[in-house]
Amino acid sequence: MRKIVFANRKGGCGKTTVTINIGAALADLGKKVLVVDLDSQAHATYYLGENPYTKKGNLFEFYSLLIKREDINYDNFIKKTLFKNIYLIPSSSFLNDLDLNKIKGVETKIKELVDSLKEKFDFILFDTSPSMDIMTKSGLIAADEIMIPVEMHPLSVKGLAQLVREIYKINKEYNKEIIISGIIPTLFNQRTRVYNAVLEELKKIFPEEIIFFGVRHDIKLAEAPDHQKPIIYYAPISRAAFDFKVIAKRILRLKSKINGKGNKRSEENEK
Ligand SMILES: Nc1ncnc2c1ncn2[C@@H]1O[C@H](COP(=O)(O)OP(=O)(O)OP(=O)(O)O)[C@@H](O)[C@H]1O
Ligand SMILES: [Mg+2]
Question: Is 2 a pocket residue for ligand 1 (Cβ < 6 Å)?
Answer without folding.
Answer: no
